[in-house]
Each structure stands twice: as structure tokens, then as C-alpha cells.
Amino acid sequence: MDAPNTGEGASTQGSLHRRILADITDKILSGAWPPGHRIPFEHVLTEEYGCSRMTVNKAMTELAKGGLIERRRRSGSFVSRPRSQAAILEIHDIATEVHALGLPYRYELVEGQRRPAASADREAIDVEEGTPLLQLTCIHFAGERAFCLEERLINQAAVPEAEAAIFSESAPGAWLIAQVPWSAAEHSIKAAAADRVVAKALDIPKGAPCLLVERRTWSGGQPITRVRLTYPGDSHTLIARFVPSQK
Known about the structure:
Elements: H1 7-29, H2 42-49, H3 53-65, E1 69-72, E2 76-79, E3 84-87, H4 94-100, E4 105-116, H5 121-125, E5 132-142, E6 145-155, H6 172-179, E7 184-193, H7 196-202, E8 209-219, E9 222-232, E10 236-239
Helix pairs in contact: 1-3, 2-3
């Protein structure tokens, strides 16, 4: 049993509780223990830290309340899969979503090419055939896990600065937010099953449920970009805040 909350014993138990909490939190946020990783059983942690079962249980309870772990009856405790929330009508940086989860962010440019717009691009980005486009495919990571697949078209006629941008070092979404003041945006949100390309990029089974956000933006009536953002269906939530109509 833990020592009473007075004197040196209580101080020692309190220090151990904070140490256990800090150690496990660090392993989760650093990605050393990825989502789904089984946390050592409480009796193992009790022996490792030389403390009471109650001290370990207190730390685990706080981790569960904070959403970092899931406690499953008879199975043990596991690192939670992060769930991101994003407002539907906002345009924001994906890195901000990841940092809001307390996870390290990483970005990878998979492919980039400059090409003239084809007739099929008119529906996607509303430009004339032959308009110079920059086509980018990127993956955003939260810890060690792929968080989002980004497939983007940029209208270089409207954003000539994109010609010299180094997207291997910085994500195009954040760059565009900083460079181009958008005046209108359109969102399309739907569920989709992962095809072969998406499954490979996000390291999920083919056919797994995904959340697909398609966005187009304009500046002064001129199309700027069209982006498809695909998230694993178990790790992202879209929210919107609204008020009743004044009619």
C-alpha cells in the first residue's frame, strides 16, 4: 500500500508517480511506442520502478484520462491511435493538426512534376488546357505513422513563385497559405476506400476506410490550387461550428 500523504514516504511515491507518467508520455510522444503498442503490465512497472501497484495505477489512470492510452479489460493498456479534429471551413497547416496531438511532425515529398493542364484538369482546378501546372504528391507523418496523403495541383499561371519553391523542404499547403491570400474556397468531404496507391502511401490495408477532403481555392476569381487530402478513417474527425440562419 502507498505511504500516507505526509512525510518522506508520500514525497517518494509522488516523485515515482510523476516519473512513471513522464517516462511513458515521452515514449509515446517521441514515437518510440507507436499507436497500438502494448504498455508493460502494471506488475512489470511496479518491479521496474520499485513502487506500489497503486502508484503505477494512478499514473496509468492519468494517461488514460489524457487520451494517450486505452485500457482494455483483461488485455492490458495500449497506446491510443491519435484522433485529429479539423474545422471543415478552415484552411490550415497539417503540421498544426499533428502538433495539436502532441506528436512530432514530418513531411515527405513523394513526387513533383511541372506539366501543361490537360482537358481533364478543367473539372479539378478550373483552368484552360495548356495552363502550366505543378503536380505534387506528399505524405505527412504524425510520429512514425503516416497521417495524411496530399495530392495537389497548383496553377503556376496564378502563382508563378511556385516555380522556384523548394517543396522537398517545405509542405506546399503551408507555403501557399503564407504566399497567396485566398478569397474563396470550396470543400468536398466524403468517405472512400483505400486503393492500392493510397494503401501503400498510408501503410494501411487496401480497401480500408478513409476520409477524403477535396479543396479548391481562388484568389480574386482566379483558381489557385486543388488538393486531395486522404486520412486513415480511424484517425481524423472533421468538425464545424455554425449558428442558426437569420431568416
